[in-house]
């Protein structure tokens, strides 16, 4: 007999996280040849990882009997060099940026605290906050997915602990202007978490604000532009006072030695990074010009498509049957039922996507 009474009350209200579909999922469901399936549902790098990262992993394999450094020192220093932000502000995190979100929620949230979410947005903020007893407060984005700053500031209460801003936003791809982030940070005693998972594809970032403000945090990941989603590495840039508190509760050795080796090598491969960014830029234009529905402008490696009057679920299923994995956004809060998110792929993959749409 399940003993649900043993589960924390906070967990009962959490909706299960809905990940993008895997190749195995749809090979099984539709009897497809795995080699013919293209996976554009999770915003991974279609070029794969940097060859330098793969080589570093192989070379490091024999060291896996040894615990990594407790604070992933080598990786933190490489991140500091890459971002230009001092190492004393930086924490490397595993698993992925999700590990950072989880750690911050454990550090900051007590039962009844509020977190503000600008919906539709990335859903793990809500899950990690709720698991620690937070009450999520939704501030719905406008028609064009911009955030109404007045509306957001009005949603702040004395119980607000964290305001989550995703820029570029998943799933809409738009950024939040720096002056808006500053207005919010200056209007509140709460922490402002800016998720820059897709920042390498964008024309701006706000990392330089971290050393200047005592309540701005920036989260990043190696899963998207760096092509290391399977390594599960993220990092945070935090005010120094907060990093010291965070390190008290961070899971010991949460970044594996393999992740440190691969991350350092990926950061050293500017050529692979630039190729990845360029591929997204040209692919975006092609998809915008050729998908026969409204395609929102994006500063990320995905496009958001509104397939109305069709339902996202039906169009997603049609594409899945053709071996094209895209993300139905219906499970995102306040996203409606006609949005699909498509990772920008290689030229060949993007062509397949456009062909896939031709029969819809
Ligand atoms: C992918 C993603 C993350 C999580 O990345 P991991 O480092 O793989 O955990 C965080 N935020 C957003 C917006 C994402 O799209």
TrEMBL record:
- UniProt pathway annotation: Amino-acid biosynthesis; L-histidine biosynthesis; L-histidine from 5-phospho-alpha-D-ribose 1-diphosphate: step 7/9
Reaction(s) catalysed (UniProt annotation): L-histidinol phosphate + 2-oxoglutarate = 3-(imidazol-4-yl)-2-oxopropyl phosphate + L-glutamate
Q: Which UniProt keywords apply?
A: Amino-acid biosynthesis, Aminotransferase, Histidine biosynthesis, Pyridoxal phosphate, Transferase
Q: Which Pfam families match?
A: Aminotran_1_2
The answer on whether this UniProt entry bears the keyword Acetylation reads no
The UniProt entry's sequence similarity note says: Belongs to the class-II pyridoxal-phosphate-dependent aminotransferase family. Histidinol-phosphate aminotransferase subfamily.
Listed name of the protein: Histidinol-phosphate aminotransferase
Species of origin: Methanococcoides methylutens MM1
**Gene label:** hisC
């Amino acid at each position: 007999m399940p003993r649900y009474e043993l589960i924390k009350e906070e967990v009962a209200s959490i909706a299960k996280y809905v990940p993008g579909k895997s190749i195995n999922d749809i090979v099984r469901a539709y009897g497809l040849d795995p080699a013919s399936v293209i996976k554009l549902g999770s915003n991974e790098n279609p070029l794969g990882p940097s060859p330098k990262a793969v080589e570093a992993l192989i070379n490091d394999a024999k060291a896996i009997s040894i615990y990594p450094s407790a604070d992933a020192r080598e990786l933190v220093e490489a991140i500091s060099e890459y971002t230009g932000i001092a190492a004393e502000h930086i924490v490397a995190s595993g698993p992925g940026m999700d590990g950072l979100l989880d750690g911050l929620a454990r550090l900051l949230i007590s039962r009844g605290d509020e977190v503000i979410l600008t919906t539709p947005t990335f859903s793990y903020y809500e899950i990690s906050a709720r698991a620690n007893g937070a009450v999520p407060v939704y501030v719905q984005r406008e028609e064009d997915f911009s955030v109404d700053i007045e509306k957001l500031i009005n949603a702040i209460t004395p119980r607000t602990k964290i305001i989550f801003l995703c820029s570029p936003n998943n799933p809409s791809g738009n950024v939040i202007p720096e002056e808006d982030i500053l207005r919010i940070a200056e209007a509140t005693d709460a922490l402002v978490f800016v998720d820059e998972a897709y920042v390498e594809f964008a024309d701006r970032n706000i990392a330089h604000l971290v050393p200047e403000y005592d309540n701005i945090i920036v989260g990043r990941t190696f899963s998207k532009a760096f092509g290391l989603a399977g390594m599960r590495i993220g990092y945070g840039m935090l005010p120094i006072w907060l990093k010291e508190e965070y390190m008290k509760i961070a899971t010991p050795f949460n970044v594996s030695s393999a992740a440190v080796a691969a991350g350092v090598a990926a950061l050293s491969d500017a050529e692979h990074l630039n190729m990845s960014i360029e591929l997204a830029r040209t692919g975006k234009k092609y998809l915008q010009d050729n998908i026969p529905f409204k395609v929102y402008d994006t500063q990320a490696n995905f496009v958001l498509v509104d397939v109305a009057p069709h339902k996202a679920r039906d169009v997603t299923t049609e594409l899945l049957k053709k071996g094209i994995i895209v993300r139905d956004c219906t499970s995102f809060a306040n996203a409606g039922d006609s949005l699909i998110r498509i990772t920008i792929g290689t030229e060949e993959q993007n062509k397949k996507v456009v062909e896939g749409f031709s029969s819809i």
